[in-house]
Hints:
Layout: H1 3-30, H2 32-54, H3 59-82, H4 87-134
Amino acid sequence: MSDAWLRRVVMLAIVLLVLHAVGTWTYSALGVAAAIVSAVLVGAISVFTARMAGLGNSAWFVVPAVVFTALPLAARLWTLVTIEQSWWTRTVEFAPFLIGFAAPVLLLLMAYLELSRRAGRSVHALPLVSALEDDDASGQKRR
């Protein structure tokens, strides 16, 4: 599988994780209609940013993904701060969210950025490789 396809798969995994987290949070806080609207909004923004990132600047995808990761994370932390329980209980309740959503999204974002850097290096390396291939053993350009 090429790096471009791996980058697309990683991007899809991030979008699905974010869509699930934002949809779940919106459903629990605001209801079904808001969850549907948020799912459509996150999906539309993800498609747009993925297309823009495909044009060469991965920040178009990374920045919205970080924002959409931070929103459910902040909401979850806010609910844990406002409840009257021990810190141990809060930590135990927060751990599955952190392990099942935040950490995988951040790890996938790191993989996406590395795949993007690799693609950028290979694009910049191509003219150099073709220029080197045109030289013969004496260092003269072939004609």
